[in-house]
Amino acid sequence: MPNKNTMAAILSTDFDRVLSGWLKAQTKEGVKRADLVSAEESKEQSRDLLSAIADALPDAAVDSELDLTETVWDPIRDVLETITENRTQRGVSTTEMGWFIGSLKQPLFEILHTELADKPTEFMREMWNSTRLIDQISLHAIESLVEKREATIERQRAEMTEVSAPVVKIWDRIVTVPLIGTLDSFRAQTVMENILDAIVQWEAEVAIIDITGVSTVDTLVAQHLLKTAAAVRLMGAECVICGISPKIAQTVVNLGVELPNITTRVDLESGLAYAFDRVGVTVARG
Amino acid sequence: MMTINGCVVVAIRDDLDDQEIVALQDQLVDEVARQSAHGVVIDISGLEIVDTFAGRMLAAMAQMAQVMNARTIVVGMRPAVAMTLVELGMTLEGVETALNADRAINAITGDRQKIS
């Protein structure tokens, strides 16, 4: 019996012992995060994972053929998915996630040691096999955790891009885009695309870019604004940049940035007045 | 190529190769001279791909017409084309632009009427 499936045998006969040992090890290693995950949940997650391992072990190769992507490991991957999903939301770190699974080694090795005390060669092999398995599972968990985080970041970035550059038509032949936050290359590109499309869509003659909400204007931002203005001009419209606060005016000049051939205005109001003038609209108080 | 209200309107399409663009350039200056046109409208709404050569030709055409005393306006540039030209650093300084041929012709004829 004690060849490739010693681990499976241990898990089927001593399941509760391994589980309680694991939970103790989790506490001892400080990866239980009782502040984020309740003891009940922790126990439940550990039991789910351990029973999934116990179910899969008898049929799976644990020696050098070990491949976690095989179908026999499917249940484990599903359980891991649920656990990482749950723990990502609670803000558990990758180290804690990895070591949460890694701490399973402690009780398992202890039992292996008692079972195979008189067979050092076998003990070594079993230890290596279980280490490989547990490490693979833990790496998989970490990877899935990172993937989940990346997905969150990606989703948030997409949402931000969506709301970051709304071009609105505020008058016949006048479009405007209020910019808020920081203007990086990616956003600047989106702004440019949106504004050019809006010019075509609404046959605009004047495009007003309001940078009141842009926190910092450095050489890079100025460069982006220059490019956008040049593209707008190529489309046959005029670009007005408003929201140049006194502070921004100072920084821009101190940085030595020049904004040649670009109409600038101090706020949206004066920008709009300029645009009205350009398209020949007179505003009168009625 | 056609003439409306003393404006030579020329459309540039995507499938023109470099040689044809050069030929078009010849044709354009001839036409401006023959009609003694006071305006040239270059419509590039059919142009989806630009390279530096096309960009330079466009600027050259505009300048040639300009020295023949015809006000030149480039119209109908697509957003993607505008972005490409800007990225290439070809902002066509000195070339007038308008959104469409209609507005360009209006601008040119309106200007003439003011003078006369």
Automatic annotation (TrEMBL), chain A:
<feature type="domain" description="STAS">
    <location>
        <begin position="164"/>
        <end position="275"/>
    </location>
</feature>
<dbReference type="InterPro" id="IPR002645">
    <property type="entry name" value="STAS_dom"/>
</dbReference>
<dbReference type="InterPro" id="IPR051932">
    <property type="entry name" value="Bact_StressResp_Reg"/>
</dbReference>
<dbReference type="Pfam" id="PF01740">
    <property type="entry name" value="STAS"/>
</dbReference>
<dbReference type="InterPro" id="IPR036513">
    <property type="entry name" value="STAS_dom_sf"/>
</dbReference>
<dbReference type="InterPro" id="IPR025751">
    <property type="entry name" value="RsbRD_N_dom"/>
</dbReference>
<protein>
    <submittedName>
        <fullName>STAS domain-containing protein</fullName>
    </submittedName>
</protein>
<keyword id="KW-0597">Phosphoprotein</keyword>
<dbReference type="Pfam" id="PF14361">
    <property type="entry name" value="RsbRD_N"/>
</dbReference>
